[in-house]
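User: Teach me something about this protein's shape.
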Amino acid sequence: MTGIQRRLLAWYAKYGRANLPWRVVRDPYYTVVSEFMLQQTQVDRVVPIFGTFISRFPTFSALAKGPQSEVVRYWKGLGYNTRAVRLKALADAVVTKFGGEMPTEENLLLELPGVGPYTVAAIRAFAFNYDAAPMDTNVRRIVHRVHFGIEYPAKAASKELDMLARQLVPNGKAHDWSSAMMDLGALVCTARAPRCAACPLQTLCVAAPIDAARLERLREEFAKPATAKEPVPFELTARFARGRIVDRLRELPPGERISLLDLEREIVGIVAAEVGERFDELVAALEKEKIVARDGNEISLA
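Assistant: First, the predicted structure itself:
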């Protein structure tokens, strides 16, 4: 192994989050569920919900058999409920096409709904320990800093960074290596305040040591400018209202519905007026996403 590989794996063995439930058990189902849950959601929020979800739906077959409304109920606390719908669709496909067993071949994995190149690499690395490299912004940031220096301005394209990341994976150790890269990016080599003094790769890194103030100046100078918008409190957004609609429907006993009129009265009373006026639009969007279902003038989880 190279010096980078030895150092990072040794660091992971001592400081990594190997006790995360989806890492303790190397199961493609655990990997898929965790990847869907971790999209735009912090690890600390995912851990307790993951355990409850797995207890109720322990396998692809169990998830495929479960009512979608119940899957959405068990998704409570994670937000972005369309992820629950997509996860259920994936489980249905695994059962229908592959008898409940996740395939290992890339081309077959890509046939599954909701699965792209990142998820394919994650399944192959985390569940099967194949020499694959799940690539996200954290991993690309580490590779850029180690090989080229601070990422502002960018000195390598994403394609080159991805190639280098794949070359770094030690043979037969993709699970631990990819876990280590994820943890290093989340805990040490962070986007805004890297802790170089605690990094096992410090003496091998072109960028180290990074001064946080200088990094911020470079980021402001070279990062792609975002469209200037006034920040809107979450409670005033359509996403907040959507969440309240779904939460209210979660409270209904299985099989029961609530009238759209009663639901509208409740929701309009707790969301911003301009959002409440879009109640019909919000419900229509949730129905299109197969999160809710209407039956005449009544509604429930789908």
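Now, about its shape. The mean pLDDT is 94. The two ends are 51 Å apart (CA to CA). If you'd like, I can walk through any region in more detail.
User: That's plenty for now, thanks!
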